[in-house]
Amino acid sequence: MSAAAMRAGGRVRSSTRLGRRLARPGLWFSLPALALFALFFAYPLFASLLQSFFTTKGGVSRPVGAANYVRLTEDPLVAQSLVNALIILVVQVPLMIVLALGIAYVLNQSWLRWRTGFRLAYFLPAVTTLVAYSVVFRVMLATDGGLVNQLLGVVGVPPVDWLNNEVWAKVALIASITWRWTGYNMVIILAGLQAIPAEQYEAARVDGAGRWATFSQVVVPQLRAVLVFTTVTSTIGALQLFDENFILTGGGPNNATLTPVLYLYKVAFRQFDFGYANAIAWLLVVIITIASALQFWFTRDRDARPRKAVR
Amino acid sequence: MKSRSIVALAAVTALSLTGCAMGGTGPAATSAPAVTASAKPTGSITVWSWDVAATALKRLATEYQSSHPDTTIDVVDIGYDNAYDKISVGLQAGSGLPDLVTIETDHASGYLSQFPQGFVKLDSVIGDKKADFDPSKWAAATGTDGGIYMVPWDSGTVALYYRSDYLKAAGVDPNSLTTWDALIAAGERIKATTGHTLMSIDVSSGATFGMLMQQQGAWIFDAQGNVSVNSPQAVQALTVLKTIHDKGLLKNVKGWDGRVSSTKAGDSAVHPEAVWWIGTLESEMKELSGKFGVVPLPAFGDSARTAANGGSNLAVPAQAKNPTLAADFAAWVLADAKNQASMMEKEGLFPAYLPALTEPIFNQPDKYFGGQKVYQLFAEQTAKIPPVNFTGDAAKASDIVGNAVVAAVLNGKDPKTVLDDAAKQIATATGRQIAG
Amino acid sequence: MKRLGLVAAYAALALGAVVSLLPFWWMAIASTHTTSELFATPLPWLPGPQLLENLARLEQSTEFARVMLNSLGIAVVYTIFSTLVSAMAGYGLAKFRFRGRGVLLGLVLLTMMIPMQVLLVPLFQMMASIGWIDSYQAVILPFLANAFGIFLMRQAFLDFPDSLVEASRIDGAGELRTFYRVVLPVALPQLAALVIYTFMSQWNAFIWPLLMLNTETSYTVPLALNRMIGLTHVDYSGLMLGSLLATLPLLLVFLFFQKQFIAGLLGGAVKG
User: Fold this and answer.
1) Is the ipTM, as predicted for this complex, more than 0.90?
2) What's the angle, vertex CA C239, arms to CA C55 and CA C214, rounded to 5?
3) Is the full-model pTM beyond 0.90?
4) Which residue of A has its CA nearest to C111?
């Protein structure tokens, strides 16, 4: 297995065999995307990196070397926002992926009635526009008379100060993200489940595997690529968290829900320190790269057992 | 490495394509552009605004066009919620802004200090009208070089709204609420008789704390731009809020929504709010008509009995294609008693242009307030709003101040200690000195 | 015992569905009240009589029908081309080795990893310098190559058996023909998921269209709804109604394309 393929989490077998003989079609297939990225993102990425070495004061921009990066290490808000993002990542991503996998698996069963209805119900949160999301969740989470506290009141739980308490604000944030994105990941996993050939289930049945064994030994390994995708993208989503905390808490109380992207947004668009904001962004790129590489590495095909192709 | 050279090549191509050597450094001009007054401006301009402000400008644009032939004014409602993202990107990119933009007072200093060449100096248009405008608004619209860069629009003059029924039940005369001590004493009586809290405010926003500082002429920064958030006046302001909370007289709510809901539910007896709160009361709480009155804010000793919260300005970006017409239109709309009064009447925008405040509409009794001449009260207070120095670092300081207020008021810390600590944090973040 | 498990499964699913749908119930209720009533404590839980008034005001203040059409046009064009670009690039990256593959993969990952917020200003400068501000191509083109879409399709094609491609090639089919006759049909479920995702992301896109569009009549739905949030007045009932109506096209897209998941269902599911 080549190092490059391993980094990318790919299966070497397929890319090399076809690949060696067929380099050109691969380029042609990728050309539209390559051209679009080069046209529209090469310059912004370059400009962003360049600007992280500049600072602007009173409308005049001047180079400051690595000063913005040095400042990163001394800024307590950078550290705190990273810790917050990490807590949210560690709690929220596994919770959501497990939920999405479970729901997708059940919603893929042929015995289940009202499948379409259930799928729609679970997917709906993902389609909410941000502006509606912001209004509804502020209403739901209001301390006095909010819907959530009203419901808790029915079962005798006293009102929770969701958005003003440092711990509850994180809980509310995690719950809101999970509400919004579980259905979205469910759809991707559902699509992946469809690609599992029927023979695999048959084989498991012949081997006398029970429901759980079928799930853990056939379904989950077959979904590897899809689960890697959902985990990596959800991890990036958690590390880049912005919309939900921007709307619900603004990063408060006492910076308990401040995330790196919310912080860099404030630095850039409220304080106009674009140089420093870009430095935060590139620090985040490094962190996400490490996190993604780790995830690819941990989920790599260890036994590299050749898989039966559909014939 | 082959791949790296391709990236570099692509980047260089894109660079030469756009002709921008540095990503977002703003306009390269070294001094701020100015506009000269023209007797007969012509051409067309685009204006960005939002909400009722956009409605008002659209209405007045039609009038302007009919009295000024050969002009076209196109007003675009860009929505309030993310307007500053749009404006900031345009300023930073050095392109893409229209001829006239709406900017709120608390954002004005930040833009003017960070983009000193980003706006057109308007001294030749309204420079001689300083005495005619709300002094706090004029100060905020003044650039670092002392020139005037924005035309003040509406004032957020603050006063104390009260529930007359609650005060009556507790035997409190609203005119006796002349000091914060008197108000707190009255609050205890109201709580004992009616069970209602004294005030519903969003503690974490720090807005009320800001008002209490401003009425004493103090703020996060002093006139020299040094950090003064731990001044005796600031400690006094925070102590008042803490006392109100510690006596069980404060209801903490979240944001504008929370204040509206709490007021509608009748939680609290008084509301220190700006003049635009009248519009909110009359549209969202029709059923409470006749139950409110207004008095000036309680004072600290001989301090002012008002402050500012909100209000906007019109500014001409340096990128404007027709700055002459833009400046003329802005002055025609805002430095004019009749037009300002018409916006009060039709859109509820309270003028920062003082001559407008003598128009008859400000002298009329308001049914919602049981016939009280509330606008007259606000009109009298507007000229007395103490100007404060927002500086370009207000945004950097605001989260730190909000956290300090929460620590003192809700979490029982000592006001002096938290403000000393906040002052240190702000000094570190901004590179400014601590005053004193 | 088995019956009990079944009941438990349905109960759990139903509970989850209620949690998912609760905010929508409230949005629907809110659309039938005046904004003033939405500030009441406790909040209304049952429908009110204001639906038609709210609808009329929504249309009058935002030209809602028109902006729905704007959004629809943008989202359809974007979805068609972006899905195609993603599927092709995903296939190319998963199945072939070529020069530039590393660059493309790197760019894909980089655009996913860097926060959008810091790219806005330079991208805006580019659009301004080529005079595209206030145009639909500026809304659509820069994000046509979508990193998430390419990554999704790459992961989908990784498991696609080489033997099928080779068989098609032995039959004398060209590369393009192999792609859309052999490869795409097998990946239909993922392609459907990609269409849903792509349509949704463009339909709900906010900050970039906000920066690009400067004419009220060319606004998209999120921009029009944003206009209802004012400085001192928020038209919550109109906003909730507009948001609810804005989800309808997304529902139709979802219902139509999720059939692709069912199409493969007989092959894939465990019979219980």
Assistant:
1) no
2) 100
3) no
4) A41
